[in-house]
Fold this protein.
Amino acid sequence: MAKEVKDPGLGVKYYQKARRIINKDGSFNVHRIGVESRGKAMYHWLLTTSWTNFLVMLIGLLLGINVVFAVVYFLIGVEHISGAVPLGGTKDFATTFFFSVQTFTTVGYGALSPEGMLTSMVASLEALTGLMISAMATGLLFARFSKPSANILYSESLLITPYRGSSTPSLQFRIANKRKNTLMEMEAIVIFAIEQKEEDGLFHRHYYELTLEIDKIHFFPLSWTIVHVIDADSPLYGVTKEEMLENEAEVLILTKGYDDSYGEVLHSRHSYYVSEFVWDKRFKRAYRVNKEGNFVMDLKDLHATEPIFE
């Protein structure tokens, strides 16, 4: 019999209809306010954000600091930079900017140097700032590269399809490892969630942990089709497509496995909202064996489906 989960940590009662619990990128749909200082929040964001965001933030910070110091040098006067030829306007600002970059990075080609007490003080402050920022950036880069993380690819759709050609329906989705590293001892937990308005006027979420055909595999070099059979013991038994849409059904997934590269257990989260459920289709085979007898898997085929009545 399917086991109802009282509360997996996501809440069960709400005054208003709630959106999906887990976003498509694996993050929880929760907006936290006032949980920690901005400095710690920024550090965590820099560790967890995408590489694009991180590099844009870092390059923008470096350019911004150098522009600020270039403005200061420009206001002091380019004539206080030994080796610089005053040309006026934007050319002088370009000279102060390049001088700022050389000072910030401590490159010091020797052609330009500070002249006078005020310029020397500003240059010293910039050199110290550059050392500190460089150390912080190096630490963040190392932390991002050394932080273990799973990169599990989930099929775009969750299928409600006959089980092994029988009349019994089943719930199915597929996963694969997007990296070339070795994952072993993979486990999956799948929870079915529905939301209903009850007599107290509140919206109640009910959670059911689904029994899987296979909930653990020892090796994970290929794709894994995770299957729940919708039999008489399933919480989905007799639930129609219309009822799933009305109750805003969602399937929550937690997978974990041992990463041989990092020597740690890695976790991955995902969910399928009812709008991502697909009926009356089946998955195409995601891998094949070539003439040399080697397995070949194209990750794009992980999402491939076909009508079941062909």
Observations:
- Residues 281 and 287 are 18 Å apart (CA to CA).
- The two ends are 34 Å apart (CA to CA).
- The chain has five helices and 18 strands.
- The chain has two domains: 3-30+150-307, 38-146.
